[in-house]
Amino acid sequence: MTSTANITANDVTVHVSLGDDYVTFQTAGTLMQLGGAGGEAGFGDRLKATVVAHNKDGAVLKFTAP
Description:
This protein is an all-beta fold. It has one domain (5-64). Helices cover 0% and strands 61% of the residues. The chain has strands at residues 5-9, 12-18, 23-26, 31-34, 40-43, 47-55, 58-64. The model has no long low-confidence stretch (mean pLDDT 91).
């Protein structure tokens, strides 16, 4: 991704925004910032987001059900 987005999967909506050094994931009750590749953000037992790659131009994210 290259810009801010709202992503919905498994009935969970995550607001995702990008900084030069981090990716921010935000839901109604959670805020997580992950830097670099390999970081994981969990949203209960319904959704997991993994930062596959990240640089100043954007990020590749993978969303899965844990």
